[in-house]
């Protein structure tokens, strides 16, 4: 669980509270910097984000009067909150390389090409990813392990990588949302004062509808995307793999170890770290890799020469050092989000969004917008759950709604939308791990769009909306337009 207490609107001294106009200035500036830097000058995101940090720091220091120490503290707190994410990024990059060196991912590709066909690949990928993610409680673990293998299998079957990535993410986030082992699921329940299993049950109907529609779309997409596989292509890929790796059941030991620990309830970081050791030792024991070579692959990545360019590209990885590019973007985005949070700008934006609600339907929509906005501004899915969850929960109380309505809303929109934002830690991790840019896989990540959409339909129709005992379902709040922000009242 992430220990994070945001500054809430009612807790900020009115003399220090920024106005809505002032809070929007860094947001507009960030959009301009990213657009100009990436689109016009074709730069990587790091320095456009750095421009945003510099501008925002100078703006809040000299226009709003915050001290440098306050800004440093905001950056430090935000990075500290995201440090576990950063560590997981590094460990997953090392894990992928050791699993390639061990023959684990090549083995999954080898057998997957025998068992799967282009027509069923996309829907089956989504379903398998959902099952694994539910079992281990982590969309990131699923994408960083089986997801990498699915990308290879899909390429061998002629399925474009962005489509495969979309199916992986749809399944991974579906299972993550329904798993009691998931940190975001536990966090959404905790910050809204909702029982964990009541929160999971509240999400089930909407999740099943969104995922069911996604699977249907993958069936249609698979039928249209799968053409005739060139004769001998699968055999050539399998021969290239078998010529460079020993493909035996022993190469799957790292999977059994890693997923076994995850199912047992061991947290993600030690579980994935153990997976790195299991991959390194398997590469030594099964592939005959030397000790130094095994750990060099974990550090610097893999560059196999199988004799087939397609396979070489699929099994090339960056290792621990390869994660630095992604991590620098994550740290820059977290730093910018930390300044916005410490100065109260996030609280002001969430508060004014909350004032737009005039009934259950608009309140549900505002919650979804707030979660997505926090994902964009703070670049971290934990903030997208915590800030709306704590800022809006008393407004749900005023409408006579049970807290599980709020917990469902922040997770259905916050957790799932993180992977759609290129500079968010979720989008960065998925793009870097799967080797597909966020903007490329986004059109095929159906669940990421359908989950918030189904949530909004719930608010509009009243389906699955739960009221407190004795409430009649009147959608007029007791204090029209107010957004109390004191935590702990339910």
UniProtKB/TrEMBL annotation:
InterPro entries: Na/H_antiport_NhaC (IPR004770), Na/H_Antiport_NhaC-like_C (IPR018461), NhaC_Na-H+_Antiporter (IPR052180). One of its GO terms (cellular component) is plasma membrane. It is found in: Cell membrane. It comes from the Archaea. The chain crosses the membrane at residues 20-41, 48-66, 78-100, 120-140, 146-169, 208-229, 241-264, 276-298, 318-340, 360-379, 444-463. Keywords: Antiport, Cell membrane, Membrane, Transmembrane, Transmembrane helix, Transport. The keyword ATP-binding does not apply. This is Na+/H+ antiporter. It comes from Halococcus thailandensis JCM 13552.
């Amino acid at each position: 669980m992430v220990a994070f207490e945001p500054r809430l609107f009612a807790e900020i001294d009115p003399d220090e509270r920024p106005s809505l106009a002032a809070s929007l200035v860094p947001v507009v500036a960030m959009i301009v910097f990213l657009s100009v830097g990436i689109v016009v000058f074709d730069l990587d995101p790091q320095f456009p984000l750095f421009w945003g940090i510099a501008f925002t720091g100078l703006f809040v220091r000299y226009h709003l009067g915050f001290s440098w120490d306050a800004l440093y503290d905001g950056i430090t707190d935000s990075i500290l909150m995201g440090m576990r994410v950063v560590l997981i990024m590094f460990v997953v990059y090392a894990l992928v390389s050791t699993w390639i060196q061990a023959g684990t991912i090549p083995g999954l590709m080898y057998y997957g090409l025998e068992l799967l066909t282009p027509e069923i690949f996309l829907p089956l990928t989504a379903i398998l990813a959902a099952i694994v993610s539910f079992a281990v409680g982590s969309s990131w673990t699923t994408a960083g392990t089986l997801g990498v293998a699915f990308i290879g299998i899909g390429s061998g079957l002629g399925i474009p990588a962005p489509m495969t990535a979309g199916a992986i993410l749809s399944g991974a986030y579906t299972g993550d949302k329904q798993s009691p082992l998931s940190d975001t699921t536990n966090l959404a329940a905790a910050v809204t004062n909702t029982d964990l299993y009541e929160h999971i049950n509240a999400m089930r109907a909407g999740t099943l509808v969104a995922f069911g529609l996604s699977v249907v779309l993958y069936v249609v997409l698979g039928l249209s995307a799968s053409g005739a596989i060139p004769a001998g292509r699968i055999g050539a890929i399998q021969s290239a793999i078998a010529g460079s790796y020993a493909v035996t059941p022993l190469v799957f030991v790292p999977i059994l170890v890693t997923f076994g620990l995850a199912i047992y309830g061991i947290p993600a970081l030690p579980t994935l770290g153990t997976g790195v050791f299991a991959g390194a030792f398997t590469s030594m024991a099964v592939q005959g890799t030397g000790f130094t070579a095994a750990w060099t692959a974990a550090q610097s990545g893999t560059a196999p020469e199988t004799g087939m360019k397609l396979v070489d590209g699929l099994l090339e990885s960056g290792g621990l050092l390869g994660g630095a590019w992604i991590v620098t973007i994550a740290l820059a985005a977290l730093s910018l989000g930390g300044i916005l949070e410490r100065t109260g700008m996030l609280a002001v934006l969430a508060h004014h969004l909350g004032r737009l609600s005039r009934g259950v339907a608009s309140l549900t929509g505002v919650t979804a917008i707030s979660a997505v906005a926090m994902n964009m501004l703070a670049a971290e899915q934990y903030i997208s759950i915590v800030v709306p969850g704590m800022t809006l929960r008393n407004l749900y109380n005023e409408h006579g709604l049970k807290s599980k309505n709020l917990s469902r809303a922040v997770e259905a929109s916050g957790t799932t939308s993180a992977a759609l934002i290129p500079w968010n830690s979720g989008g960065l991790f998925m793009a870097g791990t799967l080797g597909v840019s966020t903007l490329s896989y986004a059109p095929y990540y159906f669940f990421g769009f359908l989950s918030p959409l189904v949530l909004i339909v719930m608010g509009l129709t009243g389906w699955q909306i739960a009221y407190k005992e004795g409430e009649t379902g009147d959608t007029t709040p007791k204090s029209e337009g107010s957004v109390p922000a004191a935590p702990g009242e339910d």
